[in-house]
Amino acid sequence: MGFAELWDSLLPIGRDPATGGYRRYSFGDADAACRAWFSNRALERSLRLQTDRNGNLWAWWDVPGSTGPAGGSGGPPPRAGAAGGCAGSPPGADTAVVTGSHLDSVPDGGAYDGPLGVVSGFAAIDLLRERGFEPVRPVAVAAFTEEEGGRFGVACLGSRLLTGATDPAAARELRDGDGVTLAEAMAGAGLDAAGIGPDDELLGQVGAHVELHIEQGSALAGLGAAVGVAERIWPHGRWRLDFAGRADHAGTTRLADRRDPMLPYAATVLAARAAAAGGALATIGKVSAVPGAANAISSAVTAWLDARAPDEAVLAAVVGRIEAAARQAAAGHGVGLEVRRESFTPAVEFDPALRDRLAGALAARGIDAPVLPTGAGHDAGVLAARLPTAMLFVRNPTGVSHSPAEHAELADCEAGVAALAAVLQELAGR
Ligand code: GLV
Ligand code: MN
Ligand code: MN
Fold first, then answer.
1. In this predicted model, what pLDDT tens digit does every residue of 193-238 receive, in sequence order?
2. How many whole angstroms from 291 Cα to the centroid of ligand 1?
3. Is residue 413 within a helix (H) or strand (E), and if so which, with residue range?
4. In whole angstroms, what is the distance from residue 426 CA to residue 428 CA?
5. Is residue 100 within 8 Å of 420, Cβ to Cβ?
6. Which residues, in sequence order, are CB contacts of 370 under 8 Å at separation 6+?
7. pTM for this model (two decimals)
8. Closest ligand 1 atom, CA of 113?
């Protein structure tokens, strides 16, 4: 099946007709439809379907002699020396080459962030099979759960749990905006959160992971290239700021008597903008006010700070400045403040040997793929702590992302599939 047909089969799921944006939140209805879409795409290709203990989906193209454990619910058998076995070394070890991304979205997100990598994975397998390619290593397409943290606040939750980067007991108690815990949400989707956590057996079956993603910036457009290769991911994280004030009447409370959490919150938004220096970015894009009445002073305001920087020292300095400004403003208004880091991803340098191998395989096919850094987070960045990982980017003409306006041209998506197929062939071939 060509990319366009596959793409069109996923496109309507979870799209809000009013905004044109996607609302695909983990373990909700749209997510269930995305999971069914993934299962159907796997089964119609005779790929072995696996839902791992953390709710991540895998579609395995097994190779003879390397099928999963009895019952077929797991991946291929673990191999000695798994991690690192596939990076720069010649093929030989039979650990799998995995590609994939995520199907969840930010609120009113675009169509491409995540799904492009999953759809391209299936399309690349179709292309390789049409060409008669027979892998000597297993190949898998994966879709990781809750990459955006759009429901439970922790970005890349599925890959963090898989790699042991997040404590499973704490994760089970994460709550969404309606107070539903992760454990309850998973149970509602027919999954058991009792088993979430690190899965060394599954990771041991993977030799390399290559995530294809729409570029969340316009560097490729400027360079005139349809695809690129990731160099590194900036360190980044999310912080939750809880400002606690006192509810009161908007029309009768003297200014001197107010403990209004909206004021230090507003000062913090401005401080975030002012603190961004040395190339760093700091954004407050989500806020909730309680009780949320137009004619009442709020009792509490919660805001979420997203901060990213080229290196960890700059990031720590920027977050420190914003927190200091928030504390000073809170104290000045008689408002309490609690600051909690919800997630953090250190700087990620993608495996240089794997990156060079990708670049070489693409160059050999006449594909010019510039090497780019990115400020966006990805499952490949989390998996990089345990596996050789790499990323391919597909040109985004405007650079807009996390918005319904996010776009990639069909020809560029097809170029991405061709590049991914070349990479899979290089890594999983003879
Ligand atoms: C994910 O897209 C992120 O960078 O937050
Ligand atoms: Mn995203
Ligand atoms: Mn993404």
1. 999 999 999 999 999 999 999 999 999 999 999 999 999 999 999 9
2. 29
3. helix 410-428
4. 6
5. no
6. 219, 220, 223, 225, 228, 229
7. 0.92
8. 2
